[in-house]
Amino acid sequence: MPSIKPLLVAVLLATAGLAAQADKADRNQPMNIEADALRHDDLRQTSVFTGNVVLTKGTILIRGARIDVRQDPEGYQYGVVTAEPGKRAYYRQKREGVDEYIEGESEVIEYDGKADRVKFIRKAELRRYRGSTLADEMIGSLITYENGTDVFTVDGGPASPQPGGRVRAVLAPREPAQAPGRAAPAAGASSAPLRAAPALSGAAR
User: Fold this and answer.
1) Which of the residue ranges 20-24, 66-70, 85-89, 166-170 would you say has the lowest mean pLDDT?
2) Average pLDDT rounded to a whole number, residues 61-78
3) pLDDT of residue 126
4) CA angle 47, 141, 83 (to 5 degrees)
5) DSSP state, 4?
6) Has this prediction a pTM greater than 0.85?
7) CA–CA separation, 178 vs 147, rounded Å?
8) 62 neighbors 55 (Cβ within 8 angstroms)
9) Structure confidence by residue, pLDDT tens digits, 81-116
10) Which residues of 155-175 are buried (b: 16+ CB within 10 A; e: fewer)?
11) Strands (E), 14-132
């Protein structure tokens, strides 16, 4: 069987001015978790939550079968979310200043509070909604979302849900530029669609 060369595609959240980024206040909010069971190690500052786990942190919502959480000496929090066999863990976060949400699913989700980064690992899918309307969608083996720069990196490979392990992206068209004399869009309206940045090639992680 011929080998599949993974495809790496970077996509950038572009704006017509100031970047509309994921809600930066989330990283400073407390992490609240509900689960069926908890094992906490106070010395190592680690916690393992199992059974129907629901995590909230500001506008962030995460669901999975298990979440391993740790906190470093600087107070930054990290989480690894694992789904039940045959299912996918879930992530959702509001973007700052606009009525938009980032929503993703994968078998494993890694949250890095210090780097402000989320990774969706194996059978990964990421969507952006304007209000309740789906605007952009990406599918691959590994999707990395950089909150600080609003850049998504999508890797293809055997763990991609797409045939042949390929990457798939559906990007909504940019809204027309504001014409002189026309009324400004309503507050909270989006003008930040995803667009493809120059394609790169590399191995899946």
Assistant:
1) 20-24
2) 93
3) 95
4) 35
5) P
6) no
7) 27
8) yes
9) 999 999 999 999 988 778 889 999 999 999 998 888
10) bbbebbbeeebbbbbeebeee
11) 32-34, 37-41, 46-57, 60-71, 77-82, 89-94, 100-106, 108-112, 117-130
Exposed (0-12), middle (13-18) or buried (19+): which is 48, by Cβ within 10 Å? Answer: middle
Domains and CATH numbers, the chain: 7-174+189-198 (2.60.450.10)
* Residue linked to tokens 């996918």: 88
Residue written as token pair 């490979």 = 157
All residues at 6 or more sequence positions from 100 whose CB lies less than 8 Å from its CB, including other chains: 20, 94, 128, 129, 130, 131, 135, 190, 192
Residue in the block written with tokens 């994921």 = 22
Reading the block at residue 89, the tokens are 């863990």
**pLDDT tens track for 107-142:** 999 999 888 899 999 999 999 998 888 989 999 999
Dist CA 4 CA 171 (whole Å) = 24
Percent of the chain with pLDDT over 90: 45
d(CA 112, CA 103) in angstroms, rounded, equals 17
